[in-house]
Amino acid sequence: MTSSTYTVQGMTCDHCAGSVSSEVTKIPGVTDISVDAKAGRLTIISDEPVPASAVEEAVEEAGYTVVPA
To answer: What is the pLDDT along the chain (69 residues), one digit of tens a residue?
Structure first.
């Protein structure tokens, strides 16, 4: 199992977290996620490392941006 944490810009509420969660869970190999909207943090648990580009695309699809930590 692998854990990766990303900083997401623009999330402000539970609805934001739900949107990000909905998109990121579609990424193959992702087994669990945790989204903290107030902290702007997304943590992904996966069977194998997930490409950062896939995470960035999913977050953008939800309407937000992954920023350098």
So the answer is: 999 999 999 999 999 999 999 999 999 999 999 999 999 999 999 999 999 999 999 999 999 999 986
Q: Which residues contact 37 (CB under 8 A, 6 or more apart)?
A: 11, 12, 13, 14, 16, 17
Q: Please give the structure tokens belonging to residue 8.
A: 């997401």
d(CA 21, CA 9): 14
Q: Are 3 and 43 in contact (CB under 8 A)?
A: yes
The answer, as to whether pTM is greater than 0.85, is yes
Residue with tokens 């992904």: 44
Integer Cα distance of 27 and 58 in angstroms: 8
